[in-house]
Every structure is written in structure tokens, then in C-alpha cells.
């Protein structure tokens, strides 16, 4: 028996010697290529840097075998959950957070009895959700982890971080206080609490400012509406209301005097339709300033005065607009202040009313036949006695404003 054992050993040694001698003279056929050894090395499951998205047993038989071992039904739920956690951690390191979430979720589905392991799966999945910007999902996982392990530091940190991102500063303080009760010296919890406390004070300050500003704007709006109502100016909105329940007009565009109910529409009816978005306002002296539109139908031109004070007259503005320098479209040089006539058209019908250019704007706006449309008083400017003026006025009823 001894001789047989010795003989077997000798045969083995002889075989190895023969193999080594052969290796000296013949190149090993399955060796890595010197120029592509890194790529070939990466195909071996043990040395892979990144796992493929889908594993084809025909292409990666070794990797498929390893995965089948990971998901082997013969193992305990704890072993399976641990393997899936490790798998998720590898995906997480590769910043493949979606795949990491899938792995952690599969681990939780194993329903293992290890509360600590399940808490880690939840906190790890919360971290992956956090990096993807899924703050609500991350917070839910942090809550689940804390239920399993109330003093779990990572769960407490993640919950506080999620609430901070969601700007729920009161909740951040609550998470941090719970965490600091169990981990009083943790610097991250202390920093999160300080940050949340600062931002909470800033948010409260901004809320107070916004409330004060809203109150101020409401007071200004009420004062403006009262001033318009006191003057008896009629308003109408020809565009469709942006809010329901307005008392200023109905869907057919019926005009209506200013009432207290107009405050409910947010002054929509007082905003000019011009691109400037100018609106009527009360100045420090208590005078109304209106955004006024001038129309020059002969040349299809317009002028817009963003703040026409109600105490000013048309002649003052025309003298500035058509003073030393006339507009380029007035090629005949006939739009001189003394040559111009101002008209307004009634809201319904084609009746025109000629305006006394020396009268203040308030006099015109308070006229019984005048209506302010869409927040901008509008007037037509014509050259007195011109051929176009005669043609434009022909067939229309023209009244002198009294």
C-alpha cells in the first residue's frame, strides 16, 4: 500500500515536471492578450467593475451562476436579504441608484426576522431615493427604518435631511431632537438642527413680511377703489374675467359702476392691456393717475402715457408730445398742438364726443357717457379740418363734451 501511494506521488510529480517543461517551450493557449488584458479581466465576475444590466447565461454563464446562488431558494430569508443588500450596495457605489433601489426592495420582500438588517435596507434605499431627488420616498423609508430601530443614527439623519429639502423645518427640528437624545454628540445632527432653526426663523420672518405687504396692498386697493367710486368713474372689462364672481361686468361685457365687490376681482379690471401692464394708482396727494392710450387712426399709430394725472389736461401732454420735435410718421408736419382735436367713443355705438383739451382728465372720466375699458382711458387724436378727419367723422354722431 505504501509503495502504491509513493508511486502515485511520483506519477503526480512526474506529470507536473512534464507540464512545466512543456510550458517552457509552448505558449499557453488560454492566456490573456497583452494589449486587451484589462477588458478580458473585466469579463470575469470576480473582477468585474460594473455588472451588466441584464445577465444572459449564454454570454455570462459564470455571472448567471453567481446570481442564481444569490437568489437560491434554499437559503434563509436573512441570507437572501443580506446578499441583496450587498448587491444594492455595489450598485450604490457605482451611482446606479435605480438598480440599488430594486435590490434593496427585493431584500425587504424577503421578510427576514432581522430588524437591524431590515432597518439598514430601509436606510440604504432612502439614501438611493435621496440621491435621485425622491424626497418623499426617502422620508417614508427613513420613517420605516426608525420604527424598526428608533435610535438608528442613519435613519434619523436621513429623515432630518429629507425634511430640510422639503422645507419642513419644524419636522427637521423634531428629527434632530430625537436623534440628539440618543446621540447627543453627533455633529451632523447638531449642524442640521442649527441650519433648520436658522431657516425656520427666516421663513417666519418672510411670512410676516408677506402678510404685512398683503395687508398694505389690500389697504391701497381699498383706498383706490373708494377713490374711483367717489368720482363716479365707470369701468368695464372687455376681456374674459380671470376670476369668477366679479361684480364689475357679466360675460357679455356689460358695464358697471365701481362697487365694493370689485375688490374681490383683484383689480383685474383696472390693469391696462398695454404691454407695460400699468395700472391706475393714487399718488401721495390723493390724485388718480391713469394709463392713457392715444390713437392716431390716420397713421395707425398709438401713444401710451403710463401715468396721466387726473388734474392734468390734454393740452399739457400734447404740447410735450408734439412740441419741438414731431413724430417721424407725421411727414406733412401737421400734428401741431393747436391743430389737434381729441375725441372719445362711447362704449356701445359709434357716437363720438369731442373733448375740451384744456379740461382736466377727471372731467372727461366723470362724464355720464364715458367708460374706462380694460383699465386704460382711450382717446382718438385727429387733425382739425384735414381731409382724413372729415372722412373719419362723416356718418358719425359727434357731440361736444359739456
From TrEMBL:
InterPro entries: Csn1/TTC4_wheel (IPR044059), TPR-like_helical_dom_sf (IPR011990), TPR_rpt (IPR019734). Residues 284-390 form the Cns1/TTC4 wheel domain. The keyword Repeat applies. The keyword Repeat applies. Keywords: Repeat, TPR repeat. Residues 1-20, 193-218, 238-257 are annotated as: Disordered. Residues 201-218 have a biased composition (Basic and acidic residues). Belongs to the TTC4 family. This is Cns1/TTC4 wheel domain-containing protein.
Amino acid at each position: 500500500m505504501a509503495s502504491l501511494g509513493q508511486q502515485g506521488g511520483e506519477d503526480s510529480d512526474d506529470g507536473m515536471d512534464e507540464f512545466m517543461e512543456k510550458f517552457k517551450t509552448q505558449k499557453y493557449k488560454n492566456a490573456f492578450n497583452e494589449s486587451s488584458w484589462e477588458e478580458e479581466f473585466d469579463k470575469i465576475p470576480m473582477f468585474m467593475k460594473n455588472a451588466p444590466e441584464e445577465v444572459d447565461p449564454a454570454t455570462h454563464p459564470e455571472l448567471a451562476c453567481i446570481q442564481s446562488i444569490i437568489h437560491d431558494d434554499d437559503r434563509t430569508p436573512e441570507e437572501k436579504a443580506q446578499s441583496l443588500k450587498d448587491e444594492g450596495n455595489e450598485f450604490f457605489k457605482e451611482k446606479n441608484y435605480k438598480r440599488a433601489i430594486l435590490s434593496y426592495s427585493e431584500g425587504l420582500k424577503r421578510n427576514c426576522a432581522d430588524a437591524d438588517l431590515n432597518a439598514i435596507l430601509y436606510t440604504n434605499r432612502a439614501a438611493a431615493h435621496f440621491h435621485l431627488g425622491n424626497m418623499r420616498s426617502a422620508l417614508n423609508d427613513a420613517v420605516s427604518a426608525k420604527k424598526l430601530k428608533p435610535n438608528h443614527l442613519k435613519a434619523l439623519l436621513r429623515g432630518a435631511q429629507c425634511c430640510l429639502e422639503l422645507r419642513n423645518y419644524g419636522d427637521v427640528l423634531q428629527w434632530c431632537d430625537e436623534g440628539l437624545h440618543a446621540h447627543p454628540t453627533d455633529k451632523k445632527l447638531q449642524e442640521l438642527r442649527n441650519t433648520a432653526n436658522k431657516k425656520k426663523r427666516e421663513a417666519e420672518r418672510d411670512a410676516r413680511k408677506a402678510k404685512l405687504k398683503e395687508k398694505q396692498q389690500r389697504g391701497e386697493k381699498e383706498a383706490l377703489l373708494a377713490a374711483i367710486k367717489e368720482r363716479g368713474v365707470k369701468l368695464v372689462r372687455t376681456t374674459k374675467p380671470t376670476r369668477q364672481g366679479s361684480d364689475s361686468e357679466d360675460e357679455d361685457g356689460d358695464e358697471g359702476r365701481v362697487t365694493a365687490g370689485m375688490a374681490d376681482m383683484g383689480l383685474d379690471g383696472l390693469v391696462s392691456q398695454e404691454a407695460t401692464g400699468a395700472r391706475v394708482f393714487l399718488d401721495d396727494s390723493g390724485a388718480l393717475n391713469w394709463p392713457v392710450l392715444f390713437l392716431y387712426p390716420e397713421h395707425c399709430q398709438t401713444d401710451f402715457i403710463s401715468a396721466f394725472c387726473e388734474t392734468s389736461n390734454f393740452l399739457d401732454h400734447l404740447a410735450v408730445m408734439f412740441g419741438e420735435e414731431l413724430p417721424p410718421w407725421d411727414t406733412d408736419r401737421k400734428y401741431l398742438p393747436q391743430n389737434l382735436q381729441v375725441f372719445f367713443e362711447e362704449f356701445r355705438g359709434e357716437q363720438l364726443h369731442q373733448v375740451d383739451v384744456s379740461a382736466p382728465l377727471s372731467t372727461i372720466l366723470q362724464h355720464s357717457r364715458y367708460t374706462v375699458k380694460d383699465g386704460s382711458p382711450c382717446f382718438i387724436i385727429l387733425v382739425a379740418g384735414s381731409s382724413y378727419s372729415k372722412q373719419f367723422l362723416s356718418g358719425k354722431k359727434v357731440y361736444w363734451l359739456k
